[in-house]
Amino acid sequence: MAIRVLVWGENIHDRENEIVRGIYPDGMHGAIAKALNADPAIEATTATLEQPEHGLTVDRLARTDVLAWWGHRAHGDVSDEVVDRVAERVWQGMGLIVLHSGHFSKIFRKLMGTPCALKWREAGEKERIWVVNPSHPIAQGLEPSFVIPQTEMYGEPFVVPEPMETVFISWYDGGEVFRSGLTFQRGGGRIFYFSPGHEVYPIYHDKNVQQVIKNAVKWAANPAPAWTTVAVAANVPTERAPEPLSQRGPSLHQPGEEGFR
Amino acid sequence: MAIRVLVWGENIHDRENEIVRGIYPDGMHGAIAKALNADPAIEATTATLEQPEHGLTVDRLARTDVLAWWGHRAHGDVSDEVVDRVAERVWQGMGLIVLHSGHFSKIFRKLMGTPCALKWREAGEKERIWVVNPSHPIAQGLEPSFVIPQTEMYGEPFVVPEPMETVFISWYDGGEVFRSGLTFQRGGGRIFYFSPGHEVYPIYHDKNVQQVIKNAVKWAANPAPAWTTVAVAANVPTERAPEPLSQRGPSLHQPGEEGFR
Amino acid sequence: MAIRVLVWGENIHDRENEIVRGIYPDGMHGAIAKALNADPAIEATTATLEQPEHGLTVDRLARTDVLAWWGHRAHGDVSDEVVDRVAERVWQGMGLIVLHSGHFSKIFRKLMGTPCALKWREAGEKERIWVVNPSHPIAQGLEPSFVIPQTEMYGEPFVVPEPMETVFISWYDGGEVFRSGLTFQRGGGRIFYFSPGHEVYPIYHDKNVQQVIKNAVKWAANPAPAWTTVAVAANVPTERAPEPLSQRGPSLHQPGEEGFR
Amino acid sequence: MAIRVLVWGENIHDRENEIVRGIYPDGMHGAIAKALNADPAIEATTATLEQPEHGLTVDRLARTDVLAWWGHRAHGDVSDEVVDRVAERVWQGMGLIVLHSGHFSKIFRKLMGTPCALKWREAGEKERIWVVNPSHPIAQGLEPSFVIPQTEMYGEPFVVPEPMETVFISWYDGGEVFRSGLTFQRGGGRIFYFSPGHEVYPIYHDKNVQQVIKNAVKWAANPAPAWTTVAVAANVPTERAPEPLSQRGPSLHQPGEEGFR
Predict the structure, then answer these.
(1) S-S: C155 plus which of A31, A251, C119, C140, CB 3.0-4.6 Å?
(2) Is residue D188, in this structure, part of any structural domain at all?
């Protein structure tokens, strides 16, 4: 069965900015989904901010294996309810690929527990992306390094927790470096952050960038059944303890009572 | 200079529940602060939920090196504004020690990015806490294992990110296990979660538990100056790039413009 | 294409000890390989200590995707040359599953860089294995916990580096705990340590244990091409630097000279 | 009490190469020790390859809190016995700072369990070292980045396990990047790898480099008592199990017998 990918796009600059519209007539989300759909193992669709519930209904998320996220100008317009819903699905096992300026999205900051700040410069400079672990699934099919001719610089310190794996590190013309490909795990969900993707350059048309996103989709897809109890604090009553046990001493809760949250 | 610790207590069961009041006439926070103050290198004070801003004003937090957090019944009553403020201070370098049912506090869940769920049972059973790394600063002065005669069971899966270090693992009479001492780093702040501490048993009077908390305070205190820009996405204009650089191609932002958040 | 697994057994107690022989007429390696071969996606063969080069020739390892290792009494009899060869293949991308007393094998200690010591007791006591992350590939098809009725106790501290993931933690009748399922990455190779498997109990006939090993094989198999240069310190001459560069200042090496090792 | 640092130098190029001798009349180890001794909290001495037991006797190591290691041309001349001895002391809690070409030293490779390979170029190019976590103890007193005007390039992939923390990442004139400051933990010992330090440039006279090494010494010093049993697999006899236990079923070992290694 194909991996069901949902490419979410903010779809603002895609429509309103002439340069961006010229590069991505179907939006960045459209371009990414199209590139993914070239792989028969992937079935990609799109959703955007302006749709009801931002196109991220409970039902839609339930049928999504991996969600890719691009946002920039309107992070604050994404409803907290939807963000909580997406986080819950990630914890249950949905993969998440956070692209470029998505570092400041509500969903990424919620899952990281850090500010996710970084340095930036929009000079159209060159970025060279180095593969740190060439045998990592996300690095398959790439050269030891590849170049993005024009990029927005993102520089360290990138305030995220220590990643599970550092997959890519970027070098910039202007002298900075950046951990441009990082993996994280939250509950059952695998998360990949990938920094290239500034909207005024044709970065999502780059074949290496497309390869990375395709690889990341396959890496992030978790075939395990959804971990639906991931946020449940289950009481194990004394009489159902794995080892025989008798109640001793005082107790705060009445039998069968729910825990506090 | 002494380490300035602020022990925060919800202070509800401490006052309202007769058993808890009997064990902790000055509240759990009071007992913990008293134990910490026995060490001349530590200067511990307390704050509680019912105080204005929960006793966690900007100024108070600025003068705090390590915050210890105990909450249970009223996690939802802690204002989001105060939670954001505490998180910002942790990112800047303040240490945080999260105790027992604080696993479900807003601040811990915010910093972890996971549900922080676990299994639980209130049977007054025995807990044996094993030291996983005896040379870790938080394990100093302890035997290879120590016993808490009556405890609330907390069982795996404990839904947190992979920790920086697993310091303690607990064994329970009833057959469960739990990673009872875990370290994390978020920005400049070190975080230690320690599970023992159910309020109807005299756990914070236990000398081993007191030793752990004292050790954790010393481990979590970060003498570095506060990282005040930890959440700032600083623009580095082209003319101030570390290496000489000239502007190329189109740009989304006007010179000097702030980034989107 | 099926995953090519090589199950390596020391094959000493399997032949010499009457109890072990009774439980495993084809050796433990034989029992494990048979269980794996029940899965059409896996093609398992065996090799043993007494074979030439311990059955681990260069060619054989080149055709192995995942190596499972069981040793106990004769760790010292494994030749250093073969150990180095196995390590090199792991770095290149071969998966490695280290079973039970293999914690003290030369290959595991070499890959960990630590003593890999632990506590132990052979009392035939009960072990309860808890799943720490139910959505991990290695935990698929298991209940929240499962029991091994008679086991050798392995207790903390287990002196290994912090793992990439803690998949299982064990509870023992006698009061100890142990991180019984841990993952590591070394170069291109994924490593899984799994502690159950004492030879005088029929542990490798247990269906849960078989499920774990089968899952681990699938998790550890890395489809990436072998990383053949993983141990090579490649010189990048000045004239082939990614960015134009001219030689400045003194130099220790002559052009084209190899680096020191 | 001052931190007792032992700076170990290979002392070959220091004596035989005219350029190196000119920069470091007292050897690189001498220059590093001198810089460290400027801090009253540190007491640094030196040892070199040509001394009996390379100056690393059991007694000397027992009195060492942190060992700094510089080697390049003669890694193979360091005796395996001494390497094992140093590793044991690291596991027991001695800190280890591995400098520059020490990435290929026997001791570092033994503790990492990986090839520790990297790319290199000796062009005297510029290196810019970026601080990834400005609140880390090892980064104190530094600017967001600092420059080494002439350096040997070390490039990714650097084949080490995922570090505990990435403290520094380097940018090079020639287009490469490198994780130039990494922390690891092995048993009780903290390890810091720091890449700058090529012998034909005056890098150890640089005040930022000296600051990093001084910070690293303080970070790596573990005041805990030596973990002398770190490599011991202790048997816990049935009658001394923490919980009452009776022997069940067959057994491989006789009571009181040592485990196999």
Answers:
(1) C119
(2) yes
